[in-house]
Amino acid sequence: MHDQDDILSDAEREALATVTAPAAAPQKVLIVDDNPKAREALASYLKAKGIKCLTAENAERALGYLKGERDIGLLITDLRMGPFDGLELIRKIRESEKAALPIIIVSGDADVPDAIAAMHLSVVDFLLKPIDLDKLVRLVRKELGVA
User: Fold this and answer.
1) In the sheet that 103-107 helps form, which strands lie side by side, from edge to edge?
2) Residue 74 lies in a domain
3) Domain that holds residue 88
4) Which of helix, strand or coil describes residue 28?
5) CA-to-CA separations, 88 to 12, 19, 20, 41, in angstroms, rounded
6) Total number of domains in the chain
7) Which of 44, 94, 102, 141 has the least CB density, counted as fewest CB within 10 Å?
């Protein structure tokens, strides 16, 4: 007996899904840096490029945002912060429900062991300050899937 419930073709079903699917909320970048000038300058630059941003002054605040905000699609974090640093923040994220979150580290004070530790935590990139802003914007757009 023929299945009467399947009246739409595959092409019709696909077309209907694209029309009725809710638009995805634009993803935000969470910038974590204990230096307010560096944090706000980076956020202002990315916002000028059409990228939505949130900022956090420390790792604890960043973890709070990650629990409460559903549309964070990328984290950019400084390496040296207190009371716990960027590497510890990344470790906590990798052990959470946000484990797959893409992360970019920026640092003005890093050594080879820090870079190796970061790569073991599956970060997208490790950028030294002063940051190559064009490279950063390309990375951000790639990770968020925007042109």
Assistant:
1) 53-56, 28-32, 72-78, 103-107, 125-128
2) yes
3) 27-144
4) strand
5) 49, 43, 41, 24
6) 1
7) 44
What pTM did the predictor assign? 0.81
- Prior bond of 130 cis (ω within 30°): yes
Residue 77 lies in a domain: yes
The answer to whether residues 73 and 124 touch, using CB atoms and an 8 Å cutoff, is: no
pLDDT tens by residue, 24-56: 556 999 999 999 999 999 999 999 999 999 999
Query: What are the DSSP calls for 30-76, one per residue?
Result: EEE-S-HHHHHHHHHHHHHTT--EEEESSHHHHHHHHHH-S-EEEEE
Parallel, antiparallel, or unpaired for β 103-107 and 125-128?
Answer: parallel
CB contact at 8 A, 46 and 135: no
Residue 85 counted as domain residue: yes
In a domain, 34, yes or no: yes
